[in-house]
Amino acid sequence: MSRILVVDDEPYLSDLVATALRYAGFETAIAATGAAAVAMTGSFEPDLIVLDVMLPDVLGTEVCRRIRAAGAEASVVFLTARDATEDKIGGLTVGGDDYVTKPFSLEELIARIRAVLRRTERAEPDGGLLSFRDLVIDEDAYEVRRGGALLDLTPTEFKLLRFLVVNAGRVVTKRQILDHVWEYDFGGNDGVVQTYISYLRRKVDVVDPPLIHTVPRVGYVLRLPREA
Fold this sequence. Notes:
Layout: E1 3-7, H1 11-23, E2 27-31, H2 34-44, E3 48-52, H3 60-69, E4 75-80, H4 85-93, E5 98-101, H5 106-120, E6 129-132, E7 135-138, E8 143-146, E9 149-151, H6 155-166, E10 172-173, H7 174-182, H8 191-204, E11 212-215, E12 219-222
Domain OmpR/PhoB-type: 127-224
InterPro entries: CheY-like_superfamily, OmpR/PhoB-type_DNA-bd, Sig_transdc_resp-reg_C-effctor, Sig_transdc_resp-reg_receiver, WalR-like, WH-like_DNA-bd_sf
DNA-binding region: 127-224
């Protein structure tokens, strides 16, 4: 049974969401503030956090930063009343895995939660090693190393990099990445892919040669740089 922490300062909404999740088979807990959410992440040890962006003491994005800095590996689904693309991407760039815009249906939220848990589930890795040059993905240990150095990746970054390695030398489109990494229609927001590719480059391509390359107007490919 996956554990889900619901963080929202509206008691009616948090109770409603928590009750629906319990009926869906999840173990739930509730926090009304950012500070309580950070504390309960350590004590409750959730697998996923449903996190409102607008909390009374601190923004949900800051809560996400804090729990990530503390080493928490729980997935995060943001709840936001904002519909601007930059606000949505902002939540994902601090370590969130998805967002749901208010107002939302409970069915949609539960479906999103299940999708995130499926793609970040660590209990059932494919097993074995995947590699490209000096980049090695150990699926059993859920670790990525480049040149022997351990890389600190979020679950979504791990899955994105795995998809690139499996398709090394082959150009994959943003739509293919959305379908295989996010596993559902992401509303055409391919800016999310660009953001995560940027994050991967900062971690994977810190040493030469760079491996992740953009093919203009097509997509991305994992390969060695081409000779000039």
